[in-house]
Amino acid sequence: MARGAGYWELDAGRARVAAPIAVKGRPMRNPIYDVLFEPVQIGPVTAPNRFYQVPHCTGMGYRYPQSEAAHRGVKAAGGWGVVSTQETEIHETSDLTPSNEARLWDDRDIPALRLMTDAVHEYGSLAAIQLAHNGLHSANRYSRRIPLAPSAVVVDSDDPVNARAMDKSDIASFRRWHVDAARRGKAAGFDIIYVYAGHDMTLLQHFLLQRHNHRTDEYGGSMQNRLRLFREVIADTRDAVGDTCAIAVRFAVEELLGAEGIRHDVEAREVIEALAEEPDLWDVNMSNWSNDSQTSRFAKEGYQEPYTEFVKSVTTKPVVGVGRYTSPDTMVRLIKQGKLDMIGAARPSIADPYLPKKISEGRLEEIRECIGCNICVSGDNTSVPFRCTQNPTAGEEWRRDWHPEIITAPKKTKPYLIIGGGPAGLEAARTLVKAGNDVIIAEASSQWGGRVTVESQLPGLAEWARVRDWRMWQLQQVQNAEMYLDSSLSADDILEYGIANVAIATGSHWRNDGAGRAHRRPLPFLQSDLVMSPDDAMHGGLKQDSGTGPIVIFDDDRFYLGSVLAEMAATTGRAVVFVTPSPIVAPWSTFTLEQHRIQNRLIALDVEIVPNTLLADMDGTQLSLACAYSGKTRQIDCGTFIPVTSRLPNDRLWTDLNARRTDWQDAGLERVTRIGDCYAPGLIAAAVYAGHKYAREAIGGGDTVLREDMNGNV
Ligand code: ADP
Ligand code: SF4
């Protein structure tokens, strides 16, 4: 194998950090970060530092309370001074089923949340609960209650359900429910109780917004009237629990809707000026959720700063803000410039629950930075426990007893051979070496990272390189990892090395025959001279293509790649046509909150979008398209055809090795395992997870157990 030189050649996605200083060989905190570790007084409670895990969904909530508690507890262990729940339904008229949010409908819900506060308090952090009534955002599918809203309007989902206008007794009931929930939150052990008006998801924000609030009484009309209920609920909450609990307000200061919504410099300023000193803390962000949790494809670290920076000039209370902050230098700047008092984080705390501790201990290079992909968000949006591309232990802290930092060394370490240096191979290798095993990892190409290296060079995806860079850095620090580039291994090679445990992580490739979801079998009419596979397109094929006619992308994958290739294709100056069997571009990206941005971007690039359409025939440069409903066909010109349909595993090595199974024993081969895309192509998150799971099971000597976690267990 050729020793790969300079395997740390690419670090485009990594945020810059000040160098740690070393004392007697061990890094310690650079004093410039000391400011991040100052305690912060929040009403009657004190946060131990400025790291604040703001409320975020996990897809676990009331249905998986042990998992929820373990996940939050790990954040406290990792140094987050405040750890919050996700939104917590306060009443059955705010029923988000089938989503797995937190729930405090009555006293029976307290024990599940007590699990979390106990887990958080164990490490000296504060626990916060985000009380929520979702108003016209909840169709109440489970409780069957009629949704409540400021005015009689249809709910904001596609459910054929209308909300009714709240009368004065409904308003009184809502205030009582909120007080009851606050008391229950206190009884569950929470230190900070939220009043929540954000994300276009809560009754209190619905009252603030003219587009939802058409009332003519003292709760409608002027802004002073529209914020009346907000003010009342803050006061109610303080009266109920403010003696020992801090009252936090979560408020959306910008909706990016112009005069139709809340503008940071107009309505938001008016609201905060009016209520400035009423809560103990302002947690401010953008609305709706897709604006708040923008992906790295569309927004860089700190994207909320222009909208939230004014808040501190209007209130003396501590202010928390978010913006996918992973750079400690940026965090210090925000504090020093008086833009925030506490660094809020959801995704950075998921990708690295130990981010604060690593800064505190001068281990900055060990921070596992969020890549801004929103795969975590897709968990909540599909009502399952979430996963994280960077942190394979997220959501598995209780279910599989995986800790993000601790991997127990086996009694006896073993050597491993890993073939393929993509996300699966790198994660398997770094986990195995962390547990003390010797690992050889061989990569066929001249660069590490597999698909993340290729995809991170596509428009908008640079931060995805962090998946590779963090793992490479880890592997670079140890003596027990041997890494070889330009080393395409064959079955002969593997048998010759005779290493007992082998993981094959050789990835996958895109099909170029049209087979996928819509067309289950290959399309014989596709003409090879016009077809360019997505792999070729990504490897420079699009730039080198000498064709002149339109570039037609047929996207049956339905996530991000088709649209990213369309963006690339648009830079060639040729006409681009995006054909998809789906009614919208990239429908799965709805779950990552990107769909409307993706479709907008293609429209802005003059890409012609052809939805609800299948392929019927190809004759010369004429591509025949068929309506997915009627079958009616039409012809379009096609100069280059890129089918983004599905992938096949690169399992040749596996097949070759299995054909030589009788030689294994003599060669000393015991266990060969396929991991990641070469087992079954999927998300990058799934490949990282597969690498991690392989290593955990190899170290532990057997399959990891998936524990059931339903609320009956509490
Ligand atoms: P995954 O997402 O499962 O990690 P990737 O496709 O990202 O998969 O990475 C697989 C890596 O395996 C690629 O970098 C590829 O070059 C490498 N590879 C494929 N076949 C071999 C082989 N026979 N020997 C060594 N490396 C290989
Ligand atoms: Fe960040 Fe992606 Fe992990 Fe979410 S899934 S925390 S966006 S790396």
UniProtKB/TrEMBL annotation:
CDD domains reported in the protein's UniProt record: TMADH_HD_FMN
Residue ranges occupied by any NADH:flavin oxidoreductase/NADH oxidase N-terminal domain in the UniProt entry: 36-364
Pfam families assigned to the protein according to its UniProt record, in alphabetical order: NAD_binding_8, Oxidored_FMN
Required cofactor(s): [4Fe-4S] cluster; FMN
Family annotation (SUPFAM superfamilies): FAD/NAD(P)-binding domain, FMN-linked oxidoreductases, Nucleotide-binding domain
Keyword Oxidoreductase recorded: yes
Keyword vocabulary terms for this entry: Flavoprotein, FMN, Iron, Iron-sulfur, Metal-binding, Oxidoreductase
Keyword Iron recorded: yes
Record's signal peptide: none
Family to which this protein belongs: In the N-terminal section; belongs to the NADH:flavin oxidoreductase/NADH oxidase family.
Name the UniProt record assigns to this protein: NAD(P)-binding protein
Biological source species: Roseovarius pelagicus
